[in-house]
Write a structure and sequence with these properties.
By secondary structure, the protein is of the alpha+beta class. The protein is built from 10 helices and 13 strands. The model has no long low-confidence stretch (mean pLDDT 97). A hairpin with a 3-residue loop joins strand 12 and strand 13. A 9-stranded mixed beta sheet has the order 5-4-6-7-1-8-13-12-11, with helices on both faces. A two-stranded antiparallel ribbon has the order 2-3. The protein has a two-stranded antiparallel ribbon with strand order 9-10. The protein folds into 2 domains: 195 residues, 3-Layer(aba) Sandwich (Peroxisomal Thiolase, Chain A, domain 1), CATH 3.40.47; 138 residues, Peroxisomal Thiolase, Chain A, domain 1 (3-Layer(aba) Sandwich). The two termini are 15 Å apart. Keywords: Transferase. GO terms for molecular function: acyltransferase activity, transferring groups other than amino-acyl groups. InterPro entries: Chalcone/stilbene_synt_C, Chalcone/stilbene_synt_N, Polyketide_synthase_type-III, Thiolase-like. One of its GO terms (biological process) is polyketide biosynthetic process.
């Protein structure tokens, strides 16, 4: 079987929105009278975010889910196309070379889906295999990588993974709910794509994936489909649960490759929020500089759900040596991948 190697990456971001402007121009009134709302919103570690639906220009909080899904397709297609085209160009491949196209999203649905529509627009072959990874949340990029990696290794054909998330379409009605304040403070929009090729002599080889789900804590992070879009449930206990499992997951991942934590050159940690990064840093005994890329992505782009860890990997493109990518989401679920130089 061939090795599965990440050889190209691309991303696309909607217009930027400054965090303070978002608070002053919309969310201050949205959460008027909610104690601690401003402190939480401006203390989320986000300086700016990206939004296809800028709340300063339009208020989607009373839109029905059907209208939000129509908007999702309208906005996701050009962003996804740009991200995938950029990844293919970086890998030096044409759309006709792709054997599998996988799309991960938890923020919008349509049938035919993005996979079919984008494959047609990009000129991918009619015999293309496709995979839709839906509603897994922030960690979906890594099981997506595992799936496309297995295809590439088994079939010796290139594959593309696209993560496209438009959380700005799911702004919720005003409520005295601090979990909603946190969600609205953190989440952002982005599309990010990677190309995976068989046996390439450049890039990063997917050397292992480890997953852990603590089903006893399933109620701590939720993403519910409602009549008014998708609603996030986000308990402040999430970092504490993460702290119990991240060490053993990383140990298992590295042990399989005969490595130790000190052998890792880069840590691509999904920046679910400032406390998530703090917990991973402290539990793994990392220096602050080792999680700096995750902090930068959170500050400059916000939490873009499944696309975020791919943005962190792009931020670390110049890092040489083993890289561990990890992401977290509903379940509670942790996923980690080991990437080695090809």
């Amino acid at each position: 079987m061939s090795a599965a190697v990440l050889t190209g990456a691309g991303s696309a971001l909607p217009a930027a929105l400054e965090q303070e402007a978002a608070w002053d121009g919309f969310f201050a009134a949205h959460y008027e009278g909610v104690r601690a709302a401003k402190r939480i919103f401006l203390g989320a570690g986000v300086r700016q975010r990206h939004a296809v639906a800028n709340p300063l220009d339009e208020d989607l909080s009373t839109w029905g889910t059907g209208a939000r899904m129509e908007r999702y397709v309208q906005e996701a297609l050009p962003l996804g196309k740009q991200a995938v085209a950029g990844a293919l160009d970086a890998a030096g491949l044409a759309p006709g070379d792709v054997g599998l196209f996988a799309v991960a999203t938890c923020t919008g649905y349509a049938t035919p889906g993005l996979d079919i529509r984008l494959a047609s627009d990009l000129g991918m072959p009619p015999g293309l295999q496709r995979l839709l990874i839906g509603h897994m949340g922030c960690y979906a990029a890594i099981p997506g990588l595992a799936a496309v990696g297995d295809f590439v290794a088994a079939r010796s054909r290139p594959a593309v993974l696209l993560c496209c998330e438009l959380t700005s379409l799911h702004v919720q009605p005003a409520a005295r709910d601090l979990e909603q304040v946190v969600a609205h403070a953190l989440f952002s929009d982005a599309a990010a794509a990677v190309v995976v090729e068989p046996g390439a002599g450049r890039g990063r080889r997917l050397a292992g994936v480890v997953a852990r789900t603590d089903a006893s804590t399933a109620d701590l992070m939720t993403w519910d489909v409602t009549d008014l879009g998708f609603r996030m449930g986000l308990s402040p206990r999430v970092p504490d649960v993460l702290s119990k499992h991240v060490g053993e997951v990383v140990d298992e991942l590295l042990k399989g490759a005969g490595l130790r934590a000190e052998d890792v050159a880069g840590w691509a940690v999904h920046p679910g929020g400032p406390r998530i990064i703090d917990v991973v840093r402290d539990e793994l005994g990392l220096a602050e500089e080792q999680v700096a890329a995750s902090r930068r992505v959170l500050s400059e782009h916000g939490n873009c759900s499944s696309a975020t860890v791919l943005l962190v990997l792009q931020e670390m493109a110049d890092v040489e040596g083993p890289v561990v990518a990890m992401a977290f989401g509903p379940g509670l679920t942790l996923y980690a991948a080991l990437l080695l130089p090809a």
